[in-house]
């Protein structure tokens, strides 16, 4: 019977035995917090290392709003020490149970090692956690929490402000007047009303930008593979594909996280697909734009103007061609810099840190929950399989409809009560969300992260072959109501379907759509639909060999001899676009897709 996930994050902490625990945030399962039994019926995980009768100490290493400081003082001793050098921080941290930072203080491995095990909570006052060593935090049993919601309105308002200022040449005209000039004809702008705005990333900030742009009379479209279509329609926004968004927009506003999938997503190739005279706003992350390519696009007239609050390197070099460009408006990462946002962040992070010090794990946790060691030991290869199936499935999705309905099927010879799938569901959710999101998904925040994105995950357990000694026969992931960039991944039920199992401790992909395959889930995978005929393996292998791409595994599944077949190829390196094109140009190849694990 299928069960839709709705378990609260806190309920995932309960266990039936007093066991040591492990982290899920890395391939090497590392020690996290130890459980403390507080009654015969219930366990609670305590993160304080100091005596329960004494106040913990919280180090505030960067300026925090007064409301947040007052919240902390009600519960803890608060040490506000700003502008500490790395050595000073390492010296002071051994006296602290928690630390709160913004983006300017690096909480490195050395900081965790210097704490001597006392540091139990790191609070990041903001969204990004690039300055916190998550792996080291997990190893040292330290919970990391952030404040992801308080900046939303401030960032959206700054995006709209930059767009309007850019369209009307406000910064350039201001500098001209202050230089003693009066150049009215030079700074004729463009109107926003009636123009098409493409919002790239329809999360909290993106949707707020869309609402405000609609109020300015703009036609708003958006691209986000996770945005529910009904939520977009409710505010008059049409979800479209990435290529359609950039090709039709007069203005493009970026609100996507910086991930391997989005790094330099605006580059020479994507600029070439844009409408001539497009205008670009970025208040998200600097690295999503290839800055050299943007300069070329500005000089070529493809991009008329750009307004940027973020840069690949901050602060950018003084001689940056992009910053100095006449048609570029820049601000020094001011997206969250309003009095109201700063106060909101202070309260949000203070509440999260105090909750963590009390032994509670909030939905803003970004690293390790507690999981019984014996459960992880048994499920370890299946945990890896689950995440990789999620990653494969979401990469097969195309179009602008958004991922909303996912069904996970577990085949097991065990009784339902003897198979704990919470870890597996969390890792499938991790695989579905992380490739195109800045969210760090784990056992604590998996259900919360899915719910936030309108992602409904149902689970079904069926009786599988084999011995109950093995926890699972196979795991199957299906995504409904979406289009696929690889048509053969669509099952007879019209859903994207991938299935896998563990063989000799290694995860394998065993089914794509209706096609049986068998390929080790290591490295990356190329899927090709072909006409089943002699020599196809050799032809594809030769193309990869000439380009020095090592093949680790190859499998062919077919409907019948001389009919359609699907070839699954495991590769150690990522093939170039030219190599993939050569594979696609082989006459018998009908479609192909490259999937990165």
From TrEMBL:
It catalyses: (2R)-3-phosphoglycerate + NAD(+) = 3-phosphooxypyruvate + NADH + H(+). Pathway: Amino-acid biosynthesis; L-serine biosynthesis; L-serine from 3-phospho-D-glycerate: step 1/3. One of its GO terms (molecular function) is NAD binding. It is found in: Plastid, Chloroplast. Keywords: Amino-acid biosynthesis, Chloroplast, NAD, Oxidoreductase, Plastid, Serine biosynthesis, Transit peptide. The keyword Plastid applies. PROSITE patterns: D_2_HYDROXYACID_DH_1 (PS00065), D_2_HYDROXYACID_DH_2 (PS00670), D_2_HYDROXYACID_DH_3 (PS00671). Residues 185-339 form the S-adenosyl-L-homocysteine hydrolase NAD binding domain. GO terms for biological process: L-serine biosynthetic process. Signal peptide: none annotated. Its EC number is 1.1.1.95. It comes from the Eukaryota. It holds the Pfam family PGDH_inter. The keyword Amino-acid biosynthesis applies. GO terms for cellular component: chloroplast stroma. Belongs to the D-isomer specific 2-hydroxyacid dehydrogenase family. This is D-3-phosphoglycerate dehydrogenase. The lineage of its organism: Eukaryota, Viridiplantae, Streptophyta, Embryophyta, Tracheophyta.
